[in-house]
Amino acid sequence: MSFIENIKNRAKQDKKTIVLPESMDKRVMEAASKILNEGIANIIIIGTDEEIRESSNGFDISKATIINPYTSELTEDLILKLVELRKNKGMTYEEAKKLLLEDYMYYACMLVKDGKADGCVSGACHSTSNTLRPALQIIKTKPGVELVSAFFLMVVPNCEYGSNGTFVFADSGLEQNPDPVKLAAIAASSADSFKLLVQEEPKVAFLSHSTMGSAKHADVDKVVEAVSIAKEKYPQYKMDGELQLDAAIIPSVAASKAPNSNVAGQANVLVFPDLDAGNIGYKLVQRLAKAEAYGPVCQGIAAPVNDLSRGCSADDIVGVVAITAVQAQNN
Question: Whole-structure pTM over 0.85, yes or no?
Answer without folding.
Answer: yes
